[in-house]
Amino acid sequence: MLPFWIALQFLSNLPVRLPGIPEPGQLGRSLLFYPLVGLLFGGLLWLLNEWLTGAPLLLHAALLLTAWVLLSGGLHLDGLADSADAWLGGFGDRERTLLIMKDPRSGPIAVITLVLVLLLKFAALLALIEQGQGLMLIIVPVLGRAALLGLFLSTPYVRAGGLGQALADHVPRRAGWWVLLVCALGCVLVAGWAGVLTLLLACTVFIGLRHMMLRRLGGCTGDTAGALLELLEMVVLVGGVLS
């Protein structure tokens, strides 16, 4: 179960501490457990949603969004901010885009992007609460983290060395595709036709963003992976409300 604890430590803000530095093979296998971490997040959000039943709707949605962000420690939002700055400031140039991503500072485009994404998530959560669609709180985090597994399975990693390279080089590919298939089937079995539509929307977002990464960078980075997760979750939440 060490790969699961590696995934949980990397993806969450929960108090998980490993005794040492994992081996590259263990890092790669940890990708297989990313959807399981999403399921854990989703379960916690669903329980919180149930506990908040009867609370003022705006406060209810705000607390759910806060918990959602805190569970991951803002890891993926940071990737989204860096990617937003780099995509605009890179002016279509690969090396300039990669260089801007390494800059820890956030420009106005990053701030605007974060505000809009969080605002749309908040509005979607508010609507989901009103519609009683608590099941989406479980499905969306699973699909978001399954997208990370799918990205590393299908897309070259463009920064040599580091954690991302170890993940990309050592992920068990056949097992990874089986995990994605199980996630897709689980989504459909749990949510029925709504699950099918949610899955199609998630796949559409994944394909579109992956194409953008390949066209600009020739692959993905840790930052673009975080941006993929945040944007996919946001679009699927909004789509769940509108469908």
How does this structure look, described?
This protein is mostly helical and 243 residues long. The protein has one domain (2-242). The protein has helices spanning 2-11, 24-30, 34-51, 57-72, 75-89, 94-101, 108-131, 136-154, 162-170, 173-191, 193-217, 222-242. The longest helix is centred in the C-terminal third of the chain and has 25 residues, at 193-217. The mean pLDDT is 93.
Outline the secondary-structure elements.
Blueprint: H1 2-11, H2 24-30, H3 34-51, H4 57-72, H5 75-89, H6 94-101, H7 108-131, H8 136-154, H9 162-170, H10 173-191, H11 193-217, H12 222-242
Key traits:
243 residues, mainly alpha, 12 helices, globular
Short synopsis of the structure:
This protein is mainly α and 243 residues long. It has helices at residues 2-11, 24-30, 34-51, 57-72, 75-89, 94-101, 108-131, 136-154, 162-170, 173-191, 193-217, 222-242.
